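Provenance and format

Records in this collection were gathered into a single text stream. Each protein contributes a sequence line and a token line. The two records reproduced below are adjacent in the stream.
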Amino acid sequence: KEITQSIQRSGKMIEIYGKPQCPFCDQAKLLCQTQRYEFTYKQLDEDFSREELMEIFPTARTFPQIRVNGENIGGFQELKKWHDKRGNLSKTYKRPENQYPAGSKGG
């Protein structure tokens, strides 16, 4: 419940819930970084538990799980489809370049 409340207050556009050694989690982060999307990356057992994940994503069976604007959209493939649908013209969800130092956890 705490994690849900903090998410609602965060106002972040894209939220990625991932786990260590997960290629699709890495691809989701890379897509957000290269497109300069404002995003938050949360890692299993550091930022949330499996129980908290199941509260937020009751039907989740794979990683990552991604929310866009508070809506559960699925995993990396769904994020890619969301991105492709919007194209590079939309700057609505992008953060300014160099806002975060290299190696930071994201937006």
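Adjacent record:
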Amino acid sequence: SNITPYVAVGPNFSYAISGVIKTKATAIIDFTLTNTPINLDSDNYNRLGIEGMIAGGISFPYGKGEITTEINYSHALNNFTSDSFIVDTGIRNRGVGFTLGYAMSF
């Protein structure tokens, strides 16, 4: 079989370019009360995220390259709010991703 599975582990870096705090209420249905923009230029927020990531996927030959598909999970190692923030919110980024791509060697 030409299908090649793989597992990857390592660091992941992200940079916040915008953000909104959505205030929601729950009654019989959920609805948004307000959308408050986050001022990321403030010293209260860490734009740079440092995450640990684990991924697994498969690749297989197609044409002159290969098709790859992957699923990954990342978990922040640092808080989104800085030490100067009034309240320790403990907000950390977490994410799940899926990738489908085509790779060619040169």
